[in-house]
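ugh finaly. both done.
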Amino acid sequence: MDSAWRGTIRTALALALLAGPLAAPAGAVCSREGDPAFYVGFGADRTVAPGETITLYLAPCNFAILSSCDDADTFCVHVTDTGNWTIGGDPSLGDCILLEPGYFLHQYVSISAPCGAATGDRDTIVAVMAYCGGGACDPSCLDTPGCEDPNLWEGKYYWSADTLVLEVTDSPPWVYVLNDTLLLAAYGQETNFLPFSICNGDPCSPVDTIDYEFSGAGLIPWNPGYPRTGSVAVAGGACEKIYAVLDASVSEVCDFDTVTLVAWDRATGLSRDTGAAAVHVIPVCPVPVLSPNAVALLAAAALAAGAIFLRRRTRPARG
């Protein structure tokens, strides 16, 4: 199925879902000076975890340059869904914004799946670029009938309505570790803070206490002033940063080690994850107090100051 037919089906579905309470009242007249269409639409359908918020980008555009409706106009983006999920926008959805022919707007749409959503649940999101009437968004005043829909430009079709289907998937692991696979320690430095992140992957879970333990081969010594074990409180859907602290004061350049972090849920001990990183000792790059660029800037500043001084000294007296 080509893109034109896919667009036709998606737009037909969007308009069908908008029928009923959003249908224009009998005798209503829409003022259509411009031609609305999404230069960037929702794209492919996606999955979302319970409690997760995803933010998508739309680019509503006035395609008047390709249409018989060839003037500037005021438009709005109206978004509805079939599952009554939480939807927000930046700018706010329904705002009326003037677009000149050929101009488009940066519109972000945020959609949050409820915590009670079950795996396999679906929500159909419908976005329309509508006209504003009397200074207010009028989602019943659409591109059709009246102007071209879709607009064809450089072999691509651009529609004034789009749909997105979100399917609920399993929540991510309750406990998981994030870290870079290569961390660097400074030669001769006693306290090298090497970052790891412990995350609570379930956005719907309460604050969870997660215990952790670092280990390594000992080729780069652990700094004795910092513990290798501990605990951290992590809110649902958030991450907290912790540090392995190594002492490279007795190491040589190019020494290496491996640091491993194990984290687990204190309450059950069942949800756990492991992160590992290679650590390399690197030389510290000296930073000259006066680099050539710094000397040049100081010289220029001195010359400028001298010129000001001379101008003040040689300024003719008044009177």
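ok and the 2nd:
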Amino acid sequence: MENQMQATGEFVDADGMTWYRIENHDLLDPFLVSLVTPDDQWAFISSGGALTAGRRSAEYSLFPYETDDRLHRSGGRTGPLTLIRLEGRSDVWQPFDLDTPIGHTHRSLAKTAFGDRLRFAEHHPDLGMTFEYTWATAGRFGLVRSCRLSLDHDRDPVEVTILDGLVDVLPAGVELASQQASSTLVDAYRRTELDDAGDPDGEAAGDLALFTLEALVSDKADPAEALTANVVWGYDLRESTTGSTMLLSERQVRRFRSGLDVSAERLRTGVKGAYLKVATAQLAAGEDLRWTLVADVDLDHQAVVELAGFLHHRSDQTTAISGAVEAELEQAHRSIGELVGDADGRQVTADKRSTVHHFANVLFNCMRGGVFPDDHRVVVDQLARFVSARDHRRHERLMELIAGLDPVVDIDTVRRAVASDDDIGRLVDEYLPLTFSRRHGDPSRPWNSFRIPEPMPDGRMAIGYQGNWRDIFQN
């Protein structure tokens, strides 16, 4: 049987998108996959399931920022964890378990041609069940994990009890050095709790969990308040689940594996945080269960209150929340297409492999060198801030020269307006309004640090570049 099994790849169409899917990817050596985002989010995912993700830089991580060799060994210990128990069976199915015997299940891994979504799938022939989940980013909401458990069409109805969620979720405020060298000290400062603020019934808002530090990790005799939180929350797309129980640590995972009951947790301190939901549901032949987890990093008090209010006050909670998340997912996907399209990266030929390769090549070149957001047009206020920051003595004169210009104009219009002042003209000529640029660096090259600028207050992409001059002019 082993000689008949091999990893194969093909293009498939699903959910209105083109994907490249690798069947039996678990027969290959583990490899690292990056998730492309149009904003300040980032994610690096091992083909074994573990991942690290966050915003802006490794200092703002949702999961520990480890080198890729450690990520490849961390499946089931960092990131997603799923256990499925069928009524009447003593064994527990753990999809994507690194120790599952070869041939016992069938696995695949698929990534969109845009590089913005990654889907893991595993089919268990004996149980007649398939479990899959997809990673994507949803702008203001953060990182999204969409899950689906389905029963084959030729199977009898079953009752399933599912434990699913995220483990080893970092609290906000943990510096990279502490993540990698003082993780046991970080554990001592951890606080994980369900948020029930503003709910008269004392129920958590959309099962919103807060991952925080009791205080910043420091040995200095200075105040070190931890004023931000990492958050995880979720929702179900089907209301037939019963017996839902929230766990905030891995302490009771072994009890679940043993078929024993678990107790709800609303607060855990001093241990690694987790977000695990246990629920029971009936599945008929050909039916599926769907649920979604959403996670974000570094939310301040106001952002947490606003998120809790959003989750509490939906008139039709599941429909309204899922609709808002889906809208952000689609906007992120569309933004990547527009960015690459502006760089002539969207071409159509009879050779799909060449078309997708060209898109990917242009996409990653854009991320290295950046793109111009509006051809040769510039936002006058942004250009003025650039010039004034480099020579504040010229600010008053600059404002006189550009007074009366439209908010957004062609760069040559600005050049003509300041032509009477050589110094200001020189600074205007130096203005390089690039966006979507990010310095290269990932867990396979940890010596290269990266930082992605966060969006501007009005929601537009930040202007600036992280690539070096070779990247900019070469790409």
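summary for the 2nd one i guess: The mean pLDDT is 90.
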